């Protein structure tokens, strides 16, 4: 069935009539025609919203999947305790690592997404660390970045710091408390601070 448009005298299929009015004569409409077009627009809006929500949920799911399941496999390290890669989790926290006044920039590509259990992301500028496996110790976390860390020693950037050496101090704290990196398992929200200093660094 068709209907003749009163504005342009064109024959339009019944199911396309309202769309024709909206597309070709929106500025001319009045009375019943205006109400028909307005109601048609509201119906489309109501129908579209669930699809938009569904797409948003799907996008979030895909992002989460990529973040959790497509990360590199856990790195084989010399850490005393290895994480459980079969027990997923998702934790975040802060970290500062400084040696002789040099602050490590974890946004450097060499530190981005190097390990499946502990890593930094470039999309958040490495502002927080991410843990995706149960049992990630601070020692393991640093080992995935090519660093060696104990209670009283640090190897980073080709430099070795050991409190057995005169004039050298190594401080490892989490939330302000000293910890043993070999045993301390990272928890959500942890604020890690690792600072190594020498007399030569203090004098420079």
Jot down its keywords.
alpha+beta, 204 residues, 12 strands, Ferric Hydroxamate Uptake Protein, Chain A, domain 1, three-stranded antiparallel beta sheet, seven-stranded mixed beta sheet, 2 domains
Query: Which architecture of the largest domain would the CATH scheme give at its second level?
Result: Beta Complex
**What structural category do the secondary elements indicate?**
alpha+beta
Q: How many structurally independent domains?
A: 2
**Oligomeric form:** single chain
Low-confidence stretches: 66-70
Describe this structure as you would to a colleague.
The chain is an alpha+beta fold and 204 residues long. The chain folds into two domains: 2-69, no CATH class; 84-203, Ferric Hydroxamate Uptake Protein, Chain A, domain 1, CATH 2.170.130. It is 29% helix and 29% strand. The protein has helices spanning 17-25, 31-69, 138-143, 199-203; strands spanning 2-4, 11-13, 84-99, 102-103, 118-119, 129-134, 148-149, 153-156, 159-162, 168-174, 177-178, 191-198. Strands 3, 4, 5, 6, 10, 11 and 12 form a seven-stranded mixed beta sheet that branches. The protein has a three-stranded antiparallel beta sheet with strand order 7-8-9. The longest helix has 39 residues, at 31-69. The protein is rod-shaped. The model is unreliable at 66-70 (pLDDT under 50). Keywords: Membrane, Transmembrane, Transmembrane helix. This is C2H2-type domain-containing protein. It comes from Natronococcus amylolyticus DSM 10524. The chain crosses the membrane at residues 51-71.
């Amino acid at each position: 069935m068709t209907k003749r448009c009163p504005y342009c005298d064109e024959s339009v299929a019944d199911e396309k009539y309202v769309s024709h009015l909206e597309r070709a004569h929106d500025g001319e409409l009045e009375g019943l025609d205006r109400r028909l077009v307005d109601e048609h627009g509201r119906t489309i809006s109501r129908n579209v919203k669930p699809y938009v929500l569904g797409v948003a949920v799907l996008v979030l799911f895909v992002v989460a999947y990529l973040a959790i399941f497509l990360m590199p496999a856990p790195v084989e390290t010399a850490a005393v305790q290895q994480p459980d890669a079969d027990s997923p989790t998702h934790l975040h926290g802060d970290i500062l690592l400084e040696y002789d006044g040099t602050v490590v920039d974890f946004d450097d590509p060499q530190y981005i997404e190097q390990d499946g259990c502990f890593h930094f992301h470039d999309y958040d500028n490495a502002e927080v660390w991410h843990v995706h496996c149960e049992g990630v110790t601070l020692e393991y976390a640093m080992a995935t970045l090519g660093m060696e860390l104990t209670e009283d020693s640090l190897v980073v950037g080709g430099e070795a710091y050991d409190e057995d050496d005169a004039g050298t101090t190594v401080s490892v704290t989490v939330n302000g408390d000293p910890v043993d990196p070999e045993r301390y398992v990272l928890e959500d929200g942890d604020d890690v601070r690792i600072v190594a200093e020498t007399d030569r660094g203090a004098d420079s």
